[in-house]
Amino acid sequence: MQDSGLVALFGEKTSTFEMNNFKLKDPVGDQILVKVEGCTICGSDVHSFLGRRSVQVPTVLGHEIAGRIVSFGSGNKRTDYSGDHLEIGDFITWSVVANCDKCIYCNRGQPQKCVSSFKYGHKKHNPEEPWVGGLAEYILLVHGTKVFKIPEGLSLAVACPANCTTATNVAAFRVAGNLAGKVVLIMGAGMLGVTACAMAKFYGAKLVIVCDTNEKRLIKACEFGADQSTLPAGLADVVSNLTVGLGVDIIFELTGSPVAFENAFECVGIGGKIILVGSVFPSVPVGLQMEIVVRKLLSIEGVHNYAPEDLAQALCFLNETRYLPWKSLVGKWLSLSEVDLAFQLAQSPEYYRVGVSNAMNH
Ligand SMILES: [Zn+2]
Ligand SMILES: [Zn+2]
Fold first, then answer.
1. Domain for residue 362, yes or no?
2. Are 56 and 97 contained in the same domain?
3. Has residue 81 been placed in a domain?
4. Could you tell me if 211 and 273 lie in one domain?
5. CA angle 135-116-112, nearest 5°?
6. What residues does 302 pair with on adjacent strands?
7. For the chain, does the N or the C end have fewer beta carbons within 10 angstroms?
8. How many A from CA of 104 to the centre of ligand 2?
């Protein structure tokens, strides 16, 4: 093992990254030291980079991470969340929030809101504890982190987004309930959206409609299972024609755009459910017609992050849908020293994800 490693610190002086070298310490208690194999840049990392989301700087961004175990603290039980034995060298991922399992939110099944939560890729930098984000050579998993073995043969490109995009989708689908025979509308065909298209079909939706402003992304969403795609201007007609005026049963709003919400709201049918997932940055308020919510018996729910069970299911889902072109969603891999370029590229709609990795195989 090296005795030190690199960390890409964001925002110390300007909105760029600076490479810093820090000494590695042996893990203590039940901590696990992990070598980062790769980290894909999530949309929320891009929001932080562009200043749309407030983050305490300097910080180590990156939370869609997969890595290999380097060493265990002496108090670690060496089992993953499912009880499988863990060994040095195992390829793992973990829930983005470490939680206490004791507080009011943990007891209520909302561990992502734990009062003593520790969120990877979101901490203000502390030179004593620098291994807290994915844009670094190593990461130190702290007490309360739920660790998962990555299924055999799943590539880095498929594994990295599991602990954010895929698991968040699973949480949203859990809220949606049984999809068998339902008509689903997915607003947004980015990484969350194409994953949601695949998941909706996998879980038995009768019809999946996807809406985005980008035509190329709509084509990709159809490769992942959408039955019908449309630009926002055509949405109301498409929904009306395909549902003989009844409207859709479930809407996943994945863009965070108030305009997208208002467009989608027009399309919901009686007893419909609107699940808000994309609004992870401030936006202007939407005009909500309360009378329609009442008369149509609607429910509107928000989903933020996920519980560890959702990540377990996300890994099963990715494992069982290997026939889909998941790998194609990470359009570019760059090394840690090219992290500035990685964030420039990650802003382009050309790429669903840009990955940062020093590993040879993605
Ligand atoms: Zn994320
Ligand atoms: Zn807690």
1. no
2. yes
3. yes
4. yes
5. 70
6. 276
7. N
8. 7
Say if CB 200 and CB 224 are below 8 A apart: no
Q: Is 46 helix (H, G, I), strand (E, B) or coil?
A: helix
Find the 167 Cα to ligand 1 centroid distance in Å.
Answer: 10
pLDDT, one tens digit per residue, over 135-179 is: 999 999 999 999 999 999 999 999 999 999 999 999 999 999 999
Strands 64-72 and 91-94: antiparallel
Q: How far is CA 54 from CA 46, 182, 332, in A?
A: 12, 38, 27
Distance (angstroms) between ligand 1 centre and the Cα of 286 equals 24
Ligand nearest to the CA of 109: 2
User: Other CB atoms closer than 10 Å to residue 242's CB: what's the count?
Assistant: 17
Residue 71 lies inside a defined structural domain of this protein: yes
Which amino acid does the sequence have at 101?
A: D
Number of the ligand closest to the Cα of 111: 2
Q: What is the pLDDT of residue 239?
A: 98
Tell me, yes or no, whether 274 and 329 share the same domain. no
Whichever domain contains 131, its CATH number is 3.90.180.10
Q: What is the pLDDT of residues 195-210, one digit of tens each?
A: 999 999 999 999 999 9
Please check whether residues 106 and 225 belong to one and the same domain: no
- Here the CATH number for the domain that contains residue 198 is 3.40.50.720
Residue corresponding to tokens 């994945």: 254
Which ranges constitute the DSSP H helices of the chain?
A: 43-49, 104-107, 156-159, 165-176, 191-202, 215-223, 235-242, 258-265, 290-295, 308-320, 339-346
